[in-house]
Design goal:
Layout: H1 8-16, H2 23-35, H3 40-57, H4 62-78, E1 91-96, H5 103-115, E2 121-126, H6 131-143, E3 147-149, H7 158-172, E4 176-181, H8 189-202, E5 208-216, H9 222-234, E6 238-242, H10 252-260, E7 264-268, E8 276-278, H11 281-289
Parallel strand pairs: 1-4, 1-5, 2-3, 2-4, 5-6, 6-7
Antiparallel strand pairs: 7-8
Helix pairs in contact: 1-2, 2-3, 3-4, 4-11, 5-6, 7-8, 8-9, 9-10
Amino acid sequence: MAENSWSLGRALRGMFVKPTIDETTWDDLETALLTADFGPEVSERIIDDLRAKVERYRTTDPRDLQRMLRETLEEHFAKFDTTLRLSERPAVVLVVGVNGVGKTTTIGKFAAYLRRFDRSVVVGAADTFRAAAVEQLATWAERGGAEIVRPQQEGQDPASVAYQTIEHAVRTQTDIVLVDTAGRLHTKGGLMDELSKIRRVVEKLAPISEVLLVLDATTGQNGVLQAEAFLEHAGVTGLVLTKLDGSARGGFVLAVQERTGIPVKLLGQGEGINDLTGFTPHVFAAALVD
């Protein structure tokens, strides 16, 4: 994985080439973790864990500390099952998230990702609030090699568009359905209630395999609040982290996971149609630290 500015390693590099571990090392590490949006509770727990390991192994070599940090983060991320559960036919995936997180592009990239495994994909344009949303989604669905089911009339109820998409998938024996939902502000109760309605309507035709919450990796600790709200209203089963190629700091995902138990399942790391990958704990931990 190419180095970029969300890597903790950029902040840590000077620390790990010092001749020894001292109190300034711990201060610098705490600052680096907080800057990378791990949050105060998670940062303190990581440092306490590392202090104990350094004492246990009686090391003063900062390179040992770097390795221990990488291993500690990997252990945290590995506690969660990152498997995408798409065995039903059709496998229905609801894609949720607030405005501006990259939800539309993520759906196109996810379609391309699934097509690489020879899965047929249909996308449901259930974001009927923005006139441009359907056209944007159609462009990305086409790039990703997926069909699209559009609203039949302007302002159509999103749940009915989702229903029509499932009907189409059943009729055409399409493997996987990706349902786009309007970008919800997690503070707007009525809009969140609509997500619950989409769930109820879809489940009359097919079980929902995954509910993926798209989170902008630049969000920081606000991502915790978003995840908790969407978990309550939409039954989120997995996270998709986007914009890891910008000035993002990916540490907040650990706080999100520890508060909600939701695993990261996909990572978006660029603008291209193929820039979506599965989540691998040791790769992500290494990218943060090294």
